[in-house]
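Support request, please re-run this one:
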Amino acid sequence: MGLVGAVVAAAATAGLERAAAKLPKDKRAPFERTNHRGETVTLLEGPVAVLGALAGVAAGSGKGRVKAAALLAGSVSGAVGAYDDLAGATETKGFRGHLSALKRGEVTSGAVKILGVGAAGLAAAALLPRKSTGFGALTEIVADGALIAGTANLANLLDLRPGRALKAITAASAPVAGGPAAAVVGAAVAAAPSDLGERSMLGDCGANGLGAITGTALAASLPRPLKTLALTAVVALNLASEKVSFTKVIAGNPTLDKIDQWGRRPR
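Re-run finished. Output below.
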C-alpha cells in the first residue's frame, strides 16, 4: 500500500546522495566527522535521507492530516538536528547535560534540538486525526507528542555504529508499513550501502528526522494498547541511555550483536 512512497523516497535519496558526492570539497568539509574507527565519514547522509523521506511522504498514500504531521515532524526535527550537527558542542551530552547547562544560563545547540524536537512532536500530534475531544484529546496529543519526540531521540541514540539506527528505524516502521513509514523504509534502504560501508552516517539531522517521521506513523496507526506499549518502551530506553551504554549491551547479547554486525565491515 505504501509502495509509491517507498519508491519515491528511495529514488530521491539515491539521487540526492549522488548530487552530494559531487559537491566541492569546501562545501563537504563542515559535514565531515571521525567515526568509531577513526576514519572520516560525512554527515550529508542525514539531510539527504530526510529530504528523500519527506519526498516519499508527500508522494505516498495516507490521510492528508497524517501526511502534514509527518512532514512537519520530519522537517523540523531534521532541521534542528542539522543545527546541532554543525554547531554542536560535543562536551555536553544527554538530557541531563543539556538541562544542567540551561540551569547555568547556557543555551547549548543540544538544548535547542531537544526543545525543537519536542515542539515538533507536539505540533505533529495536534495535527493527527482523532475521535476524542476535550481533556481526552489533550491527553492523547501529549502522549503522541512524547512518542514522536522520543522515537526521534532514540534513533539518534542508536546512531553510534554503522547501520544501527537505520535497522532500528526500519524495524519500528514494519508494524505500520503504509503511509509515512513506507517512505522512511525507502530512504533507509537507499542510504544503507553508504552507511554500512562507513562512508557516511545519519548524524542528528538524519536520525532525528527519520525517527520523528517513524514516531508520527506509529502515533497515527497503532491501536491504543500497542501505542501505549511503544511509548513505554521508548521512554524507558531514553531514560536508560543516561546510565547504560547501548553499544555494550548489544555487544554482550549474541543475537543483538549478530543483527548489529549484519552488513557491516568486519571488526
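The longest strand covers residues 32-34. Residues 3-261 form one domain.
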